Amino acid sequence: MSLEEPKSMDECVYFTIRADEKLKTKAWVLKEKCTECEKSLMGKPKDPKTGRAKIRASEYTCEECGHTIPKEEYEDTLTINIKYTCGCGHSDEISMPFQRKRVQRLNEETGKKQAIETIRFECSKCGEQIDITKKMK
Q1: Predicted confidence (pLDDT) per residue in 76-119, tens digit
Q2: Most CB atoms closer than 10 Å: which of 31, 78, 105, 122?
Q3: Does the residue 41 lie in any domain?
């Protein structure tokens, strides 16, 4: 099974590459076609002045027919594709629903526990839990 990689960022709702000493992950969520006209990809509405997508928009719209879907409803139907290399040296691909979960984690700076949003999956060889956390400020 080979996952379809995006050719440009215009095809993606979400894209990230994360790497550290032992773990490498590349994750992306492709936009889906409009459920009404099935001609164009759904995307965030564009600002009429600049022509760029409105980052904090709460809905997705079709450029062809103007059909609008609330952000939460649309993102619940999406699938995240992940290519990873685990700490055990195993490389694999996985596809799963794009739904973040809230997980408790120890903040190294403050020493306190905090809840973070993450996409969690397991290595298919060793079973280690791998997290792709939402970027935090």
Answers
A1: 889 999 999 998 888 999 999 998 889 888 877 888 888 888 99
A2: 31
A3: yes
Task: With a cut of 70, say whether residue 55 has pLDDT above it.
Answer: yes
* Residue 53, pLDDT score: 85
> CA of 15: how far to CAs of 29, 39, 82, in Å?
7, 23, 10
Contact 42, 30 (CB under 8 A): no
**Sheet of 129-133, strand order:** 101-106, 113-122, 129-133
In a domain? residue 102:
no
What domain range includes position 68? 35-72
Check if the beta carbon of residue 94 is closer than 8 Å to that of residue 109. no
At residue 121, the 3 state secondary structure works out as: strand
The whole-angstrom separation of Cα 85 and Cα 97 is 20
Structural domains in the chain (count): 1
Buried b (16+ CB within 10 A) or exposed e, 17-33: eeeeeebebbbbbbbbe
For residue 55, tell me if it sits in a domain.
Answer: yes
- In a domain, residue 49? The reply is yes
Distance CA 61, CA 46 (A): 9
